[in-house]
Amino acid sequence: MPMSPPLSYKIAVLVFLENASGEHLLLLRAKPPNLGVWSPIGGKLETAIGESPFECAVRETREETGFEISTSDLHLFAMIAEKAYEGSSHWLMFLFRCRKPIATLPADMHEGRFGFFSRAAIDQLPIPETDRTALWPTYDRYRDRFVAMRADCAPGKPVVVDIEEITPS
């Protein structure tokens, strides 16, 4: 039986932004990964320059929305290691909640278009399966704390999420 080639490992951030009404800013992705589904903004760390997850979250927020934040506006509420996401790569994701509300809906861009949604409305949207089964439930339970998780996302199997650590409340 031939061995499959090893999968690449990508490190990225997601930033959960809200407006003053508590609605979440999501991006309808215009390119892979997550083409055609809604997700929080984010992107890959620039590892060649030693960028930290916090620095990446600030940069991605500015690049994707034009919204200026600082690292002190961010709360790291989760870290999730996704094995074999879409069968194409492994991901180490840092999830941030921005404490500073975003005032306006950003303009459409090459990555996709934006919308504000209540938390209840998000459950009715087309979103990535790992967001539905792991990321949004994690946000709901731990957004003011910290949790470390791993998820087996191998294609053809249900996503299995294991919690590795939770900070006390």
Can you put this structure into words, describing what you see?
Helix content is 18%, strand content 37%. With 169 residues, it is an alpha+beta fold. The mean pLDDT is 92.
Keywords:
three-stranded antiparallel β-sheet, 169 residues, six-stranded mixed β-sheet, 37% strand, globular, 18% helix, alpha+beta
Summary?
The chain has 169 residues and is of the alpha+beta class. It contains 3 helices and 9 strands. The longest helix is centred in the last third of the chain and has 14 residues, at 129-142.
Unreliable spans are none
Number of helical segments with 4 or more residues: 3
> Major β-sheet, in short?
6 strands, mixed
- Give helix and strand order, one letter per element, not per position: EEEEHEEEHHEE
User: How would you name the oligomeric state of the polypeptide chains in this document?
Assistant: single chain
Strand order of the largest sheet: 4-1-6-5-8-9
Q: Which structural class is indicated by helix and strand composition?
A: alpha+beta
| Beta-strand content bin | 35-45%
Number of strands: 9
The separation of the N and C termini measures: 49 Å
The amount of helix comes to: 10-25%
Compute the gyration radius: what is it?
16 Å
Which SSEs are present, and which pair or pack?
Blueprint: E1 8-16, E2 24-29, E3 38-39, E4 41-44, H1 53-65, E5 74-85, E6 89-98, E7 112-117, H2 119-122, H3 129-142, E8 147-152, E9 160-166
Parallel strand pairs: 1-6, 5-8
Antiparallel strand pairs: 1-4, 2-3, 2-7, 5-6, 8-9
